[in-house]
Amino acid sequence: MNRIIYMVLRNIYRVPFWFYQLCRLCRADDPHTEEERYEFLHRLVKEVNRTGRVKVNCFGAEKLPEKNGFILFPNHQGLFDSLALIESCPRPFGIVIKKEALKWILVKQVVALLRGIGIDREDIRASLEVIKQVTNEVRQGRNYIIFPEGTRSREENEVLPFKAGTFKSAVNAKCPIVPVALIDCYRPFDLSSIRRESVQVHFLDPLYPEMYTGLKTKEIAEMVHDQIQEAINRNRRDGNN
Q1: What is the strand order of the sheet 94-98 is part of?
Q2: What local confidence, expressed as pLDDT, does residue 30 receive?
């Protein structure tokens, strides 16, 4: 919370303009392209992270599939995850988040700008509709981010088990699955400090349809989970367990 306040204070003179632009770009009838909206958000987030004294180190962006229509599956460490991903990912994406988060100011506008989706995790029918919507949009060439843990891990750089159902959209769309390892992303907002922090975003080798066809979603979930945990174990700083 201390860093969030610090970020706002450092950018207080720009906040009104940024918020106005977010509200304008998040409207359903906004005429800008997805790329134009994302470029604005990408630049905004990069500046917020810089003035918030957080360095985002990105690795493996060149591994992203050449064509759009893929889904990123990162581990979930906290509120800073989305800021790290927006700064790191060079391509626009939508996002699936818990419906409750859409009540938070700024989160609501950012998700709307990204044309993301809020999901009610307790409503099975609504969840199936989200899976169907993501599947259709990915088939049409949109990219998405889905957090397969379903909730944030409270174990810092230890990844919770992945929910098999979160991979149904990818399987149905027959699209590339891109594992993403987030390292130390809990630190900027969880620690009561505004000292400089460094986080890592690792885009791992994609799993293309021919690599997972015939596997159950549970098997895919376990495979992606293990790849991410292994990448975290290889790259995290000593002492941050």
Answers
A1: 54-59, 197-203, 177-183, 71-74, 144-146, 94-98, 117-119
A2: 95
